[in-house]
Amino acid sequence: MRRNVGTEKDTAYGGRRRSPAELATILPPGTLIPDLREPEELPAERADVPVVLEPGLAKSPTQEVDRGQLLTVTIDGVEVRVPKGATIFQAAERAGYTPPHFCFHRDLSIPANCRMCLCEVKDQGKLQTSCSTAVADGMIVAFDTPRVKEAVQGVVEFVFKNHPLDCPVCDQVGECYLQKYYMEVGRYDPLPIERVHKDKVKDLGPITLDAERCVLCSRCVRFGEEIAGTSDFMIANRSDHSEIMTFDDRPIDSAYALNYTDICPVGALTSNDFRFRKRVYYLKSAKSVCPECSTGCNIYSEQSEDTVYRYRPRYNDQVNDSWMCDPGRLSHARVADTSDRIVEPLIRRNGGLTPIDWEGATAEAASRLTELAGSVAAIAHPRMSNEDLWELVRLLKAAGGSAVDFRADDSWRGVDDLTDGILIRRDPNPNTRGALQILSPGPDSRVGEILGAVAGGGVRGLVVCGWDVETLGDAGARALAAAEWVLFLGPRRNSLLERADLVLPTCVHVERDGTFTNHAGRVQRFWPNVPPYEASRPAWAALAAITAALGGDAAPASAGVSFRHLAAGVPVFAGLTHETVGDQGAWLAGWERDRMPAVGADPMPGVRAPIIV
Amino acid sequence: MSAPQILMQRGLDRPGESHRLEAYEAVGGYRAIRKALSMSSEAIVEEVKKSGLRGRGGAGFPTGTKWSFIPRGSESPTYLICNSDESEPGTFKDRWLLENDPHAVLEGMMIAAVAIDCHLMFNYFRGEFSYPLARWRAAVDEAYAKGYLGKGIFGSDHDLEVVTHYGAGAYIAGEETGMIESLEGKKAQPRNKPPFPAVEGLFRSPTVINNTETLATVPWIVEHGADAYAQYGTEKSRGTKLWSCSGPIARPGVYELEMGYDLMQFLEDDLGGMLDGVGLKGIIPGGSSVPVLTPDECRGAKLDYEGLRERGSLVGSGGFIVIGDNVSAVDCLLNLAHFYAHESCGQCTPCREGCGWIEQLVDKILLGRGTEADLAMILRISDLMAGKTICALADAMAWPAVAFIKKYPDDFAALCAGPVDMDALAAEVGKRDHILPRAS
């Protein structure tokens, strides 16, 4: 499921790309021709899945689209049909061409001030900005004309008039719109020009401002007003002394500050967390979902040499639009931190934990569970994926146990609570909704009951996923002391390892594939970005192997197969597969929504590009 | 004097007191608004349409037509803005009106407000207009004291308030949507059109913005009738217009002329000709934004919308700038470029960077370091600016730049460092002069 909304791709620079061969004829001999990053391809397994265009879900309160009325527009000779209310820019995207642009952003109002997306419209004298001009039936539009090309080349030249030629030391290289456009339409004859000097390297807390590099597209100003609601940036002064700045150069105090660095098309706003850590063209991306709260913002996880360097938001108009919060974004550091990761499976022998291989660990778990003969309960964790939870349910069933819950603390109560009116929810777990649906454990937590049963000797074995002793509290301590056998699954060491009889290391989300279900019941898929840490395995795989060893069904070959079983076993997941969930997610049965409100603090932003399908 | 005194009679007749309500009423002031209140709003709009009055701020858009764009029975309130942000270099006609005849402006605003069913109107003053502002405020106070403003004006059921706002000195606040932004408390940056102000203007409500002079003309039209007004002027340019004249001329000042008046006759007879010892180099007829006319082009030119357009220039705001032959065209252009480079709002890339760039290049030429390539660059930059931005400020920089180089190439060549191939320069001009206004 892919929506054609505003710019189709997340890193859509637009413009035509000059081939390296063409560039070689323009650039001085021996010049290294940079490989500008293109938008990520879909993972191979999705490539043959047909692209389904769903009826769009209108959400912009400012501009209505009449889907019933399709207009025919010709863009550079290509005829496309778009709903009434769409812009020329959107029609051009339909026709396979993204006009070059700085100021236009699909989730912000349209100022039409950069003048890059100009086009010629038949029978109109002046060039028009395609981002702000609505289509009319029969309109004939051309981007590929000498007049348009000269104008766009002129804008690039104008921008360079006061832009420093400091690409070698600029951290935006590789994802810079200006660099990209210059490669395509630049004149390659730098003129000796006196530049207007503006401030460089202003530290604004989470981000650094380099006013000289700014192209004054005003995206940051609009983001601050319309989305974050903090109005951090303004454009001070006039004419070529215009400059973005915060009031009194004060640091930015916003939980959304790093979005400024995403939307800045050039190197004017860069992230203090990421700048100079890695050139972006060395990064490999995977589509993922932020695991830091129940909103489940869609993200890219980006790594180099198996270290995750950053997360950045991935467009999803049902969840996060183009945004994510800073705490979520900065959680990449937690993933990159392996200091407390469990390296390999561990078994308690002679009072201490010693390494054991996976076959041994699986066999051990199976034999102990057989001995327990059904006297086993489990405490799951809302950071586990849908597949993990399903395999846990299957394991308990195979082992004859039944009692399971995941609500060891109260965080699940905040699953729907939007704390800041924008994106951050009180529940810090990505899959509380999934756990509530898959484990269907009733309206109140049964964890106390489970721990009580273990402490009282009624249940002899306990499976704990991720939780530590402190969270389980006194009841937990009593249960752990009384339990005959404790199995721990989790990616990281914690106090529970002191008591566990068997420890199975599991992968964090960027090391594996799977799905989370967000607060609103949208099932969302994530893909692996880095290999599993040392011997760790996805929890679903570890659990399914034990189930198989117990004599249950064979372990599923992949998370996708496990998910298919889940869909067959849990009614609200009926009909879903990893393929249909895709990279934009899918609703649980009965949770469908027609309309998700646009993300942002301003209820009445200016006119944005309408959602056309 | 050659023309009917529709706009200037009162001010000239009773200097020093014409700004007072008493003096204004003594010569028939505030009769037109009483008449207007007895007419239907459609009838007022029709009357103004019929008079052929066109906007005096620069664009020359028919005033009655502009009013008729206001949707009837709109749920949002309707606003009227009087544009007194007169900042165009060479233009000072509105200042004269506001100082000497503020009640005419106020009455014009009242009539317009009645015509478009507006109950809150604004007069946006240029920040530097402290003296006209004082006179205006006094006039508003007088009107309120007499019950001409406020609840039920002139005993009618029409409530009308006026807000006086003065800017912080930005030329671009004189652009109508820039003015709206400024009134809303934001930076004066023009908006994209559509939507036009008549549909979505101030506070997202239907809004009419008229120039001070336009509004000051309205009472006369309503009182004497459209036909009386339409008798003056030419077929397409009706009535009279104020011209604010400056330069090395014998009698600079503000003049009211019937549309279609002969330019050279105006210069020689009314303005008293050039000062002794100074020859005519050129005339910028409509304020700094419009292309300059050479003496040849001036001869036989008519001062009206079509007449000046036919000569490749515009009426603009009526800032009649006479240039003597003792100054270089390079100096003139630098002066203008400096102004536009300072006043560009900085929103659109071509204007923001282009105005400053042109100033830099002209400065370089004036300092004797320029070359033929720099002249070609100025022409190219102008071409890349004109018509490619949200408002017309880029054009206002580009037109004079191309016009000055086209019409006075020798002045530029003389100051360039190296030799200038005049034929090549003419060819460059030929490539770029399509941006200049021409007869429609």
| Number of separate strands of chain B | 10
CATH fold field value of the largest domain in chain A: Ubiquitin-like (UB roll)
Cα end-to-end separation of chain B: 31 Å
Shape of chain A: elongated
Q: Characterize the largest beta sheet of chain B: strand count, sense, and whether it forms a barrel.
A: 4 strands, parallel
> Share of helix among residues of chain A?
10-25%
From the alpha carbons, calculate the radius of gyration of chain B and give it in angstroms.
22 Å
Q: What is the overall silhouette of chain B?
A: globular
CATH class of the largest domain in chain B: Alpha Beta
| Strand ordering within the main sheet of chain B | 3-2-1-4
Poorly predicted regions of chain A:
1-17, 34-62
In CATH terms, what is the architecture of the largest domain in chain B? 3-Layer(aba) Sandwich
What does this structure look like?
The complex is a heterodimer of chains A (613) and B (440). In chain A, α3 crosses α4 (177-185) and α12 (447-455) runs parallel beside α13. In chain A, a hairpin with a 2-residue loop joins β1 and β2 (78-84). Chain A folds into 3 domains: 20-271, Ubiquitin-like (UB roll), CATH 3.10.20; 280-336, N-terminal domain of TfIIb (Single Sheet), CATH 2.20.25.90; 346-582, Rossmann fold. Chain A has a 7-stranded mixed β-sheet with strand order 15-14-20-19-18-16-17, sandwiched between helices. In chain A, strands 2-1-5-3-4 form a 5-stranded mixed β-sheet, with helices on both faces. Chain A is elongated, with a radius of gyration of 27 Å. Chain A contains 16 helices and 23 strands. By secondary structure, chain A is of the alpha+beta class. Chain A is 24% helix and 17% strand. With 440 residues, chain B is α/β, with parallel strands linked by helices. Chain B has 3 domains: 9-230, 3-Layer(aba) Sandwich (Rossmann fold), CATH 3.40.50.11540; 240-324, Ubiquitin-like (UB roll) (Roll), CATH 3.10.20; 329-435, NADH-ubiquinone oxidoreductase 51kDa subunit, iron-sulphur binding domain (de novo design (two linked rop proteins)). In chain B, 45% of the residues lie in helices and 12% in strands. Chain B has helices at 9-13, 21-26, 31-38, 41-51, 63-68, 93-100, 102-115, 130-145, 176-183, 212-224, 226-230, 263-270, 295-298, 305-310, 329-343, 349-366, 372-385, 393-407, 409-415, 422-432; strands at 79-84, 120-125, 161-166, 207-211, 240-246, 253-258, 261-262, 280-284, 302-303, 319-324. Chain B has a 4-stranded parallel β-sheet with strand order 3-2-1-4, with helices on both faces. Chain B has a 4-stranded mixed β-sheet with strand order 6-5-10-8, with no helix packed on it. A two-stranded antiparallel ribbon of chain B has the order 7-9. The longest helix of chain B has 18 residues, at 349-366. Chain B is globular. The mean pLDDT of chain B is 94. The chains are: A alpha+beta (613), B alpha/beta (440).
